[in-house]
Sequence to fold (288 residues):
Amino acid sequence: MSQPRIVVVGSVNMDLTSTVSRFPVPGETLLGTAFATAAGGKGSNQAIAAAKAGGDVIFIGAVGDDGFGRELRQTLDSAGVDTTLLRTVNGPSGVAAITVDARAENSIIVVAGANGSVTELTDSDLDAIANADVLLCQLEIPLATVVAAAKHAQLNDTTVILNPSPVQDLPNTLIDAVGILIVNQTEVEQLSSITDRVEHLVTTLGAGGADLRSRGSAVHADSPKVTPVDTTGAGDAFTGAFAVEWILDRSRALHFACVAGSLATTVPGAAASSPTRTAIEDLLESSA
Ligand code: RIB
Fold:
């Protein structure tokens, strides 16, 4: 079967990650135990995860004309993501200040930088969306761009998957265009007034697996047991893998994505932690 064509319209950040024994309280200075910079951003993470899971992936977004921007583009290229439609704009790239504690939990502050400049979709962007199997979006770029991309996808029978993070109010035009909404347990509560309106609702439950509620059916998949070191980007690994497998074999997409998300927690960092298709298949087989 041919590779699923996935277009991601979203963010790309340099993640500045400090490791600590516990999160600081307001006003407190804490000594960290490690620091690392690595490519991140929900859009880029999901694009890389989808490419590693077997997708043919195009990324639409923006980096700044700084050293971070060059590194971020290079990371996407190396993962096999098509960056022809990735702009380089004047100014800084997006950054995320991340803290990871001893339980592998994280807290994240994102400063949009170049991601805020993604306000227009070009004719080439629109063509890519129209020719894709799946449009994958998050909410770290201007909302109006996400809405325009999703409406164009809907018009052209491209399945829209939205991971509405960081959560915000969603306009009706966006809700109407979304085929699959992927949320975590916090987001599903925050968006409870609209979740019944989408055809497929996926709720990720961390180590507890995930639920898929479609009109007329509901399924659950467990996550394999792993020892997590960093949960940053695990939801992105889940979402990118889910998008690919939804096109290839819908019946196992939820389980496939749970395995991808679990494996991502066993490796530090966001983009780099998403597993290859082979790794996902191996663990799927051994946990069957
Ligand atoms: O989902 C994890 C991502 O959120 C990080 O890579 C960070 O950049 C923020 O976008």
